[in-house]
């Protein structure tokens, strides 16, 4: 009987140790996430692996004047893109581009960056992300978390650009400051607002300048998942 009690005690002890190790492993994994990954995951990045198609219309409205939108259909797993505007429609594969596609692809990279900037923090591995700090956001004047995203001086369509990204305690982006060529003077400052959920992907559909008479926005958004 004594031997039985000793055996049971050893089993319970081993199970307890295994449970502790598992919990510690999960905790360590959470601690290993970078600030970029935390922001991306807060916007649904963990669901991106299931996305087969993205469609959206990018436009900029000024006062009461509606902008001329560009509509994109993107198959990320195939890296195929189609752009449609009021004048034309062009489809191409990003892995097989020629010179006639470069200007269209520049538009796609710009518009996609605005749409999915939280995910770019993970995708753009050549960019650097500063340590997290806190600062007063330029538009809302509220205290938010802050990181600086800086791109290298070579490569890509707009090398050397930098961004101040302001986000809340839930890691949702609320404002940003774009600095073209990493200049000290801000080139553009906007909000991130009117978030909507598309099959687990959270997207800020409005980006307004201070005063609200300028709005870079997205309409006709659909996120299609693999069947």
TrEMBL record:
Q: Which domain of life is it from?
A: Bacteria
- The name this protein carries in UniProt is Selenophosphate synthetase
């Amino acid at each position: 009987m004594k031997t039985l009690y000793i055996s049971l005690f050893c089993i319970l002890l081993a199970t307890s140790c295994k449970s502790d190790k598992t919990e510690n492993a999960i905790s360590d994994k959470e601690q290993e996430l970078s600030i970029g990954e935390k922001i991306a995951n807060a916007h649904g990045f963990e669901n991106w692996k299931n996305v087969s198609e993205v469609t959206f219309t990018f436009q900029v409205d000024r006062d009461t004047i509606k902008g001329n939108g560009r509509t994109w259909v993107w198959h990320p797993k195939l890296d195929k893109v189609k752009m449609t505007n009021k004048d034309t429609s062009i489809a191409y594969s990003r892995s097989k581009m020629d010179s006639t596609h470069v200007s269209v692809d520049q538009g796609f990279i710009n518009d996609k960056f605005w749409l999915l900037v939280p995910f770019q923090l993970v995708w753009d591995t050549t960019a650097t992300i500063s340590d997290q700090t806190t600062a007063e956001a330029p538009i809302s004047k509220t205290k938010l978390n802050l990181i600086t995203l800086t791109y290298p001086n070579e490569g890509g369509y707009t090398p050397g650009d930098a961004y101040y990204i302001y986000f809340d305690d839930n890691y949702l982006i609320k404002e940003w400051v774009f600095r073209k060529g990493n200049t000290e003077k801000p080139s553009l400052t906007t909000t991130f607002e009117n978030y909507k959920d598309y099959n687990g992907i959270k997207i800020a559909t409005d980006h307004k300048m201070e005063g609200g008479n300028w709005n870079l926005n997205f309409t006709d958004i659909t996120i299609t998942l693999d069947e």
